[in-house]
TrEMBL record:
Its EC number is 2.6.1.-. PROSITE patterns: AA_TRANSFER_CLASS_1. This is Aminotransferase. GO terms for biological process: amino acid metabolic process.
């Protein structure tokens, strides 16, 4: 007997580019102290008030099956949040509550891709994007971008691939891994291309509360886009609820109706006490979101100061999200080789740019997820290490 090609081909074969991460975890398990600047995990836990609300809901008995589309009051709260921030009319019928943003990405692609469809996404990309597309039977097609253009996608590059019969386009702004925030001109070009080539647009907006420069614009708010856009949202980054696995899809009503049917046959919903905690968290408003985002804004400013005055390590303008994308090509090493050398020499773990696609080769991604003093010291060590390699 054999397993299905769909499940055995999720990663496409070969290395998934996460060797440095696994190596760092092995060192830690052996007792070595490693500064991990790899994954997007907050260095603070979920706010105690949210955990109290979760405990209250669980001990109060909300532990049975919850309604599959999501508790109506939470769907209404998410819809109100989206409408307030985008100006687009949104009701609870546009919302499906999902067990995290990753589940939402899978469901969105399953809803819009047939087996064998070409599905476009921007390179560099969040590591699971191509595997998510393969897992629904689609053909992942990366759209290259350039470091000198801050990795902003160009509409002509998208159009060239869309013209070959693509079904979907996946974008992510603020962007992981680059920290780039797509401006209105970029998003207008994406919208026009989506309409011209009849693409479904899947917009991953899980970092929408982490904006350091510019503004977050949801493409769903652009002319002609509300009926062809599926927005992915999550409580993980905005409310430091990564382990709670709570997110959503915002989509046209008829799409959500089908997604509910999918959820009935897959996840069967999200735990009620988790949903109650998420509703409580959203009710705390922007004050809590700003509190959770502030450390990353502060560390971005620290990074700019540390990187000033040297020309070995370059930084892609960090406009949002909890990451820095650093250009280390002056060292003569690939991002992967540099990351391994930094880990071996200084026990500092960063992600190679190659983990996120060919466009980020010669870069490393740094997660700003340790306390300020440790972050500053580690980044300075990274710079000094790069300078030593370049001389």
């Amino acid at each position: 007997m054999q397993l299905s090609q769909r499940i055995t081909n999720i990663t496409g074969g070969g290395s998934d580019g996460w060797d440095v991460f696994y190596k760092a975890r092995r060192l830690i398990s052996e007792g070595t102290s490693v500064t991990e600047l790899t994954i997007g995990e907050h260095d603070i836990g979920t706010d105690p008030a949210i955990l109290t609300a979760m405990d209250r809901a669980a001990t109060g008995g909300h532990t049975g099956y919850a309604i599959v589309p999501g508790i109506t009051s939470l769907r209404k709260a998410v819809a109100a949040r989206i409408q307030d921030r985008t100006g687009v009319a949104t009701t609870y019928r546009n919302i499906l509550i999902t067990p995290g943003g990753q589940s939402a990405l899978f469901a969105a692609h399953l809803a819009t891709c047939n087996a064998g469809d070409r599905a476009l996404f921007i390179d560099p990309y969040y590591a699971t994007y191509p595997g998510t597309i393969r897992s629904v039977g689609g053909i992942p097609v990366p759209i290259p971008t350039r470091a000198r253009e801050a990795f902003l996608p160009q509409s002509e590059s998208i159009a060239a691939e869309a013209a070959k019969g693509a079904a979907t386009l996946l974008i992510n702004t603020p962007n992981n891994p680059t920290g780039t925030v797509y401006d209105r001109e970029t998003l207008t070009g994406i919208a026009e291309t989506s309409i011209a080539h009849d693409l479904w647009l899947i917009s991953d907006e899980v970092y929408d509360t982490q904006i350091w420069n510019g503004q977050h614009i949801s493409p769903r708010a652009l002319p002609g886009m509300a009926d062809r856009t599926l927005v992915i949202g999550s409580m993980s980054k905005s409310h430091a609820m990564t382990g709670s696995r709570i997110g959503w899809i915002c989509a046209p009503e008829h799409v959500v109706d089908h997604l509910i049917n999918l959820a009935t046959h897959t996840t069967y919903g999200v735990a009620g006490f988790i949903q109650d905690a998420a509703e409580f968290a959203l009710a705390q408003g922007v004050e809590l979101e700003e509190k959770i985002a502030e450390p990353f804004r502060r560390r971005r400013d620290l990074a700019q100061a540390i990187l000033a005055g040297q020309n070995t390590v370059g930084m892609i303008p960090s406009q949002g999200a909890m990451y820095l994308m650093l250009d280390i090509r002056a060292t003569g090493l690939s991002g992967e080789d540099f990351a391994h050398s930094l880990l071996d020499a200084h026990h500092i773990a960063v992600m190679p740019g190659e983990s996120f696609g060919a466009s980020a080769a010669g870069h490393v991604r740094v997660a700003m997820t340790v306390d300020d003093s440790r972050f500053a010291a580690s980044l300075q060590t990274l710079v000094d290490h790069a300078i030593s390699l370049a001389t």
